[in-house]
Amino acid sequence: MREGFVGLPTNRYADVRRDSGAFGSCLAMQPPFFGALARALWKRLAICKAWAMDMSSDSWGQARNELLKVVGKNNFTSWIEPLQLVSFADGIASFEAPTSFMREWVSRNFADQMLAEIKRAGAEVDRVEVRVRALRPAPATSLPTPRPKRPQRNGDSAELMGAPLDARFTFESFVVGKPNELAHAAARRVAEGGAVTFNPLFLYGGVGLGKTHLMHAIAHELNHRRPDLRVLYLSAEQFMYRFVQALRERQIMDFKELFRSVDVLMVDDVQFIAGKESTQEEFFHTFNALVDQQKQIVISADRAPGEIKDLEDRIKSRMQCGLVVDLHPTDYELRLGILQTKVDGFRAHYPGLALASGVLEFLAHRITTNVRVLEGALTRLFAFASLVGREITLDLAQECLVDILRASDRKVSIEEIQRKVAEHYNVRLADLIGPKRVRTIARPRQIAMYLAKQMTTRSLPEIGRRFGGRDHTTIMHGIRKVEELRGADHQMAEDIDLLRRLLEA
Predict the structure, then answer these.
(1) 463-491 b/e with 16+ CB inside 10 Å = b?
(2) Which residues of the chain have pLDDT under 50?
(3) Residues 435, 468: contact at Cβ < 8 Å?
(4) Of 134, 148, 212, 396, whose CA is between 20 and 30 Å from 419?
(5) Cα Rg, the chain, nearest whole Å
(6) What is the pTM of this model?
């Protein structure tokens, strides 16, 4: 074999020049009598480079182990594991991601956690940089060969790339009460991962009533019980974003293949695709394809399918063909149970704090808007008491939560009145505000108009707009009719008093 620089074989000499960079190039120009010195320097440089790469790999390996604990197995498998470490240089930890969507998602949601864990592992890094992995260009003369299809499961595939799951949102941490017991039971049934009994499961309710909690709990339970299933949870906004991205990058067939290959599809806040015609079209076909394959679909929204404005009728009808479950507003007992569960969790963080009797009952009675506000108020109260070193009493609660208590003073909306009246008289909300004039619908409608006038500050024209665009004279006639009948019809009087108490509770 032909000898090159300092007695090394020619191919080895090429490796030295490539690995040693400019320093190797300079050595190549020296006379042969520098051979021993060159060999020693090259060896030292190679050792240093290998040591630096080993240190980088070790730091990232330690950081990966900690990230697995912090973000959870599902997020780690979907977002962290596919990343490839490029280098630690100039205070930058560089990684490569397989797709631009993954790069954007990791940079937005996990970069800070990655940086913190890498620093804890001992690496001197100031920021994390993620770029898309460069693809090798195919030879011009060869035709692209299709990739072999292999079954990919939940644990070994990073292609699903759903939204991160919150580790706090499990069935064990979900407080069950009368307003949400049916939704909880239905979610439990789906999470068993058995035969599909109702498809889709449609959960709806107002803000902070537990829809997202149940969605995350289903995904957590399925990942635990059935790791072989491909479970994809994402918001409707993410579905729309990925669909638009696939159109822009001309990868619509990959998009279709991905969403049609899952075993469980979970879409949160589906009302956000209303009015988006192209997204609704693709969602419709995805829905049909999964139902035909006996795959489970779970959907959530802030209202029933038939009440989502600008949602296509064919999508509404398909959503209504499964099990539609309403998460009702929390009652006093459920709010108190949620507070008691939250306090049990706080005991570990604030072991020395004393909680006076009656405080939880006070909060459960006064804060009725939604669970998030209730939990936030309790968190603030415990933090404030620990900082000032005082016992949590009613006086302290009123002092610390004055803004929340003021904002939570009961304000009844026309929509809430309509919903409560429709439930009481067992009529559809769409019929209550619609054009039907049969007695069984017209009388509850007039009662709802009467309560809207009595319990809100809205004007007659505004009330008319909320009742299907009716004229203010129609509203006035309905109110007068109820006032006339209330004195003679004791049943109506009792119904109105009951509805008023329910709305003021």
Answers:
(1) bbbbbeebeeebbeebbebbeebbeeeee
(2) 1-34, 42, 49-51, 136-158
(3) yes
(4) 212
(5) 31
(6) 0.54
Q: Helices 236-248 and 277-292: crossing angle, nearest 10°? A: 100
E strand or H helix that includes residue 18: helix 10-28
User: What is the pLDDT at residue 55?
Assistant: 54
Q: Which two tokens stand for residue 32?
A: 């042969």
How many C-beta atoms surround the C-beta of residue 221 within 10 A? Answer: 20
Alpha-carbon distance 217 to 169, whole Å? 6
* Burial class, 173, CB count within 10 angstroms (exposed 0-12 / middle 13-18 / buried 19+): middle
CA distance 499 to 505: 10
Residue with tokens 């032909």: 2
Tokens of 166: 């919150």
φ and ψ of 129, to 5 deg: -125, 130
Single out the residue of 91, 166, 219, 71 nearest to residue 83, CA to CA.
71
Structure tokens at 488: 């003679």
Termini Cα distance of the chain: 93
Three-class secondary structure of residue 14 per DSSP? helix
Q: What is the pLDDT of residue 101?
A: 67
pLDDT confidence of residue 22: 45
User: What are the C-alpha distances in Å from 489 to residues 95, 128, 377, 455, 492?
Assistant: 75, 72, 44, 21, 5
Could you tell me the two tokens for 230?
């491909």
The pLDDT value given to residue 13: 37
For 432-442, b/e burial (b = at least 16 CB within 10 A) is bbeeeeeeebe
**Can you state the angle between helices 359-366 and 332-346, rounded to 10 degrees?**
130
Instruction: For CA atoms 416, 418, 419, 423, give the dihedral sign.
Output: positive
Contact call for residues 109 and 71 (beta carbons, < 8 A): no
Query: H or E segment at 406?
Result: helix 402-407
Residue 131 phi, psi (nearest 5):
-130, 165
